[in-house]
Amino acid sequence: MFKKILIANRGEIAVRIIRTCKEMGIKTVAVYSDVDEESIHVHMADEAICIGPAQAKDSYLNIDRIICAALVTKAEAIHPGYGFLSENKDLIDACIKNNIRFIGPDKRHLEVMGDKSQARNTMVKAGVPVVPGTEKSTNDAEEAFEMAKEIGYPLIIKAASGGGGRGMRIVHEEKEFIRNFNTAKAEAMAGFNDDSMYLERLIENPRHIEVQILADSYGNVIHLGERDCSLQRRNQKVIEEAPCSIISQELREKIGQVALKAAKAVEYVSAGTIEFLLDRNNDFYFMEMNTRIQVEHPVTEQVTGIDIIREQIKIAYGEKLDLTQEDIGITGHAIECRINAENPRENFRPCPGKIETYFAPGGYGIRIDTHIYADYTVPATYDSMVGKLIVWGKDRTEAIGRMRRALDEMVILGIDTNIDFHKEILNNEEFNKNKIDTSFIEKEIFKRE
């Protein structure tokens, strides 16, 4: 097994990876920008190296500095977490050049599945149902405008190398297209250094269902069940659940098998997620594949008892999966609330600043993944998520009750957070009846009087 791993990330995911590494007896190296010097991951790791100033392009997105940090500390592997360089082909090239293992998929997987339009075409050839859309990506607004005429409205513009809702815009009318395309393109370039875009027909008010997979380099592929990630705002997930409690066992098995087919079609290796849209007729369509660990992976861990980071590291080292599909069972129900430093009532305005008081909820079935503490200063430079509150219950009703209790206990003072916003959702009658889709927050929480 690896003796030392560098974590090329920050915040809660860096803490999460360090914890598993410690359990596996692996030394860790943290990297940090100058504004993250007091972040917990810096102090939890066995070694820590400052890799630059606050701006991500000069630190967490700077491949040369990250590789240099790995070489200086003699780290054998790099774990990229999610976001930043987690789906970056240049980082993989740099790792190969310097004899460092990248804990993630091969470059060829990113080339196929990381480019969303190419991934669609690959899935079509594999017999996986996909949402109607463009066969190629483009960064030319006029060319895209002509493509849009063939697809029809409403449609959605997406960054070919995107994720997390960035570089994405919904367009209902032709006259709105050019402006939205250029805005999404600029956002994609800023977030992913790639402004190529593709288009999909918009399936209105679907459920967002995703399947967690694990695949080793010996051809073994399994899935860990599905997650329901339908609670979103601005195409970014807010609350995630596992499993999706509205689908039948027959449909669950069908979606799982299609996810395995998708992974096998590209001979995928590592942890990954196949994402689908589920319409009102229970027809589902491949949307994209995320070739990395995801923010919401803990809900799958809670209902399966499997440490996905541990499995990801073992696969990267070259070990065979010691799990089969028959070993995977789903027990109970898990819910995750993303805790953000933001004000939902002011258009989700980010709220960086010093945390004066922090109290974490506890008790049976509660898990918190976070990097914050009292007196910690949330920087203005990065994503506003400061933690994830995860609960487990024997069923969805119990999990909702436990999450309500946990949110009531949680205290973060000194900055605005979305804790009360989560409470509002958890107390909503339609949410409790499981009548949700990707438009739920807009329709139910911010509905016009």
**Helix share of residues?**
25-40%
What's the count of strands? 22
Percentage of residues in DSSP E strands: 25-35%
The CATH architecture term of the largest domain is 2-Layer Sandwich
CATH topology of the largest domain: D-amino Acid Aminotransferase, Chain A, domain 1
CATH class of the largest domain: Alpha Beta
- How far apart, in Å, are the first and last alpha carbons? 59 Å
Q: Using only CA atoms, what is the Rg?
A: 21 Å
* Helix-strand makeup class: alpha+beta
| Strand order of the biggest β-sheet | 13-12-9-10-11-14-21-19
Instruction: Kindly give the count of domains.
Output: 3
The CATH fourth-level homologous superfamily of the largest domain: ATP-grasp fold, B domain
Q: Which of globular, elongated, flat, extended, rod-shaped describes the shape? A: globular
Q: How would you characterize this protein structure?
A:
The protein has 449 residues and is of the alpha+beta class. The protein folds into three domains: 4-103, 3-Layer(aba) Sandwich (Rossmann fold), CATH 3.40.50; 132-201, ATP-grasp fold, A domain (Dna Ligase, domain 1), CATH 3.30.1490; 207-445, 2-Layer Sandwich (D-amino Acid Aminotransferase, Chain A, domain 1). Helices cover 34% and strands 27% of the residues. The chain contains 15 helices and 22 strands. An eight-stranded antiparallel sheet has the order 13-12-9-10-11-14-21-19, sandwiched between helices. Strands 3-2-1-4-5 form a five-stranded parallel sheet, with helices on both faces. α1 links the parallel β1 (4-7) and β2. It starts with a strand and ends with a helix. The model has no long low-confidence stretch (mean pLDDT 95).
